[in-house]
Structures are given as structure tokens and as C-alpha cells.
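User: Please fill in residues for this 414-position structure.
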């Protein structure tokens, strides 16, 4: 199997690119889906030092553009990046929040098959044009509709089930679990404050600050309301707009090794879609399988990893993710966070230096490509935001749905 490397990447700013009329409530687009896709693709090609004519194929990861912006058949929008891309093959990939990781993997397969020399991968989503109820409905279509979405189950509820399962399995009392979750959230905000592309750069950066937001005001309202017990508002990732893109080629084609990062191993593993048929609601079983596949292909072990970007769509999933990747012993992930692990100063591995989905943002179709772009930038010494103390091997762990599609990539400096 031939190896593939990233030779260029670009991440747009993440945010809510809409303007709301305070009287009518109507939302106006200030940076469109089309704008975001084109900006990211154009930026990645330039970062790779190529021209558009050098790109042989394009893969676009996007979760639900029809639901969010009334646009299907989105891959051909990439032709607007540059006239030279006209007549190139363009394909959209969809796997919920893992859509652009899967797009990347399809690009890798095209290179390995010898069908392309340079591939452009783009992840993009525009979520903020919809009011919250409609946005929640679109996302719920990524759950098992008959047993979950149609029954009123939202994604906070689905990950609350993992939180309760984790608590019960490891006999963690409520206060201790809350402190674990708030520690994860505060760390995300602290890192996100230094990321110039992050959606939220001013979140509560300590457990004490988050606890204060739990207090009820004179109207009986909390700034950190319970969304799906025990998960609160600040346990949830952001509803974001944004895009990210990568240019990949076979490692044998790399001319400038200083700006190339090899995709040393990948693991793609899928869980059963309905939660009610899964036997272990305290661990990411398919995530562990994906990690094992990626590590075996790369020839590494967890102790070799210097930094990781993991899928903290909810704070509980960051705890589950570090365990799935073998960075924590099962049942000890939350305690490791309480002990001060996984910070920029960690003795072994730093997690989510970007701020993660919690602070950087989570435009669902863009998240996987963004994770890869940010690790790539760390490994070539061009970190965006907090710089890793050591950056030779990085890992991304991107999840689609309620831990259903699991994508783990090992990235290694050439």
C-alpha cells in the first residue's frame, strides 16, 4: 500500500456568519456555504504551492446541505474555485459529522489506486441560517430515525445516555462526574481563546467560572441550563459555519518534505446506528477498533502520540475519546482530566490545542478536515493558536452521529 501525504491545508474562521433582524427575527447570510467552500479550497491549493490545474479530483464532505441551505449536489460548486477545475471529477461524501474524514479517506483510495496525482479534499457546513428547532431536526436525521429522531431524541439526549452509562459502569457519583465534564469544557475554552479561527474565544476558562454560570438568577434561569441531564449548555459544542480543506498526494511525489505530513495510518469503523441495540454504553467500542486499525497501519502505540484532536461534540465524548485512543486507561479518562492531564503542558500528549469542537466550533461537515488541517499545521511548525511542545506524531479522532462512524488518522512528520 502506497503512502499518502498532506502537502497543503486551509481552515476558514469558524463562527455564526449571519445577521439577525431584532424586530422580525429574520436571518441574513453574511458568508454563504458557497463562499466558505470556495475560500477553503482556494486556500489549500495555494498553501500546497500548486495551481488549480494540478488537481485531479475533488472530494467534498458535507453533512446536510439540503437541510441547512437547500442545496444538494454540492461537490460541483468546487468548480467555482478556479476555471481550471472544470471537467474534473467531484464527489460529495456524507457520514454525518465525520463526512470530511470519509471524504479524505476516499481521496486516499483514489491516490492509492493510481487514478489521481493530487487530490483536493474540502469539508464544509453552514448551520446558522436555521432557527434552533429546525437545526435540531436536521441533525436528528443523522440519528436512527425510527427509534431516536422520530421519538424526539436529540443528540444531547443520545450523549447524555453515554454519560449515564459511563457513570453507572464506573460508579462515579454526580458531583464527581460534573467536575470531570466542567474540567474538559474549561480546558477547551482556555485553548480556544488563543485560536484566531475559533468560534468562541471568550468562554469560561475554569471549573469555578462554569459553576458560577449554573446559579439561578432572580427569574429562576441559569446561564448554563440543563439541556439533557446531566449535560448542560456548556457541555455542548457550538452550532457553527465554516470550512477546511486539504491537498494530498502520494508521499513519493512530495518535493518539499519540510511542508509535508504523512498520513501514516487510518482506521474507519462503524457502530450499529440505534443506541438501543448496543451492549456497551460506557465506551466507544467502534472508536477503539478504528484506533487499533490506524495504529497497526502506522506501526505506533498510544505512547508515541504527541498531540490529538478529538471529537468533543459533548464533554463526555472527550473523556470517552481519550480512552478509545488508549491515552487513558478505561474508566480513568475523567480522573486524568481532574489530575491536570492533556493540557499544553502535559508530559505525554496534548489534546485539542485548537479548543476542540467545544470552542473552535463544529460546522459538522467541516470538522474532520479541520482536525487534519490543524494537526498538519502543528507538525510543520505553523501552529494555529496554541503550539504543541512536541509535534512529531499527531492523531485525529472524528465521530459521526452518536459515535457511529469512527475515523482515526495517524499523521507523522516526514
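Assistant: Residues filled in for all 414 positions:
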Amino acid at each position: 500500500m502506497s503512502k499518502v501525504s498532506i502537502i497543503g491545508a486551509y481552515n476558514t474562521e469558524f463562527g455564526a456568519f449571519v445577521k439577525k433582524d431584532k424586530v422580525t427575527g429574520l436571518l441574513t447570510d453574511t458568508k454563504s456555504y458557497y463562499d466558505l467552500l470556495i475560500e477553503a479550497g482556494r486556500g489549500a491549493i495555494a498553501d500546497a504551492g500548486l495551481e488549480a490545474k494540478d488537481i485531479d479530483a475533488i472530494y467534498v464532505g458535507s453533512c446536510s446541505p439540503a437541510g441547512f441551505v437547500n442545496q444538494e449536489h454540492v461537490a460541483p460548486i468546487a468548480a467555482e474555485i478556479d476555471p481550471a477545475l472544470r471537467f474534473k471529477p467531484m464527489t460529495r461524501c456524507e457520514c454525518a459529522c465525520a463526512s470530511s474524514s470519509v471524504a479524505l479517506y476516499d481521496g486516499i483510495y483514489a491516490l492509492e489506486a493510481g487514478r489521481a496525482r493530487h487530490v483536493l479534499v474540502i469539508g464544509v457546513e453552514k448551520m446558522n441560517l436555521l432557527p434552533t428547532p429546525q437545526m435540531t431536526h436536521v441533525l436528528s436525521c443523522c440519528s436512527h430515525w425510527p427509534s431516536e429522531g422520530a421519538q424526539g431524541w436529540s443528540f444531547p439526549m443520545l450523549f447524555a445516555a453515554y454519560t449515564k452509562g459511563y457513570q453507572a459502569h464506573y460508579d462515579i457519583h454526580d458531583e464527581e462526574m460534573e467536575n470531570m465534564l466542567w474540567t474538559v469544557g474549561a480546558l477547551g475554552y482556555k485553548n480556544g481563546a488563543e485560536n484566531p479561527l475559533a468560534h468562541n474565544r471568550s468562554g469560561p476558562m475554569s471549573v469555578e467560572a462554569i459553576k458560577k454560570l449554573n446559579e439561578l438568577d432572580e427569574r429562576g434561569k441559569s446561564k448554563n441550563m440543563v439541556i439533557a441531564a446531566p449535560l448542560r449548555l456548556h457541555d455542548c459544542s457550538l452550532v457553527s459555519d465554516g470550512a477546511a480543506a486539504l491537498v494530498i498526494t502520494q508521499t513519493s511525489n512530495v518535493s518539499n518534505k519540510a511542508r509535508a505530513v504523512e498520513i501514516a495510518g487510518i482506521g474507519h469503523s462503524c457502530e450499529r446506528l440505534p443506541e438501543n441495540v448496543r451492549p456497551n454504553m460506557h465506551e466507544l467500542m467502534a472508536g477503539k477498533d478504528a484506533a487499533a486499525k490506524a495504529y497497526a497501519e502506522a506501526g505506533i502505540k498510544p505512547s508515541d502520540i504527541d498531540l490529538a484532536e478529538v471529537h468533543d461534540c459533548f464533554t463526555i465524548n472527550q473523556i470517552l475519546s481519550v480512552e478509545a485512543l488508549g491515552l487513558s486507561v478505561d474508566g480513568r479518562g475523567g480522573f486524568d482530566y481532574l489530575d491536570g492531564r492533556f493540557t499544553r503542558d502535559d508530559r505525554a500528549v496534548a489534546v485539542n490545542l485548537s479548543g476542540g469542537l467545544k470552542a473552535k466550533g463544529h460546522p459538522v461537515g467541516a470538522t474532520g478536515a479541520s482536525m487534519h488541517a490543524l494537526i498538519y499545521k502543528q507538525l510543520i511548525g505553523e501552529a494555529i493558536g496554541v503550539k504543541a511542545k512536541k509535534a512529531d506524531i499527531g492523531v485525529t479522532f472524528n465521530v459521526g452521529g452518536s459515535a457511529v462512524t469512527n475515523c482515526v488518522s495517524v499523521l507523522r512528520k516526514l
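For context: Residues 4-132 form a domain with the Peroxisomal Thiolase; Chain A, domain 1 fold (CATH 3.40.47.10).
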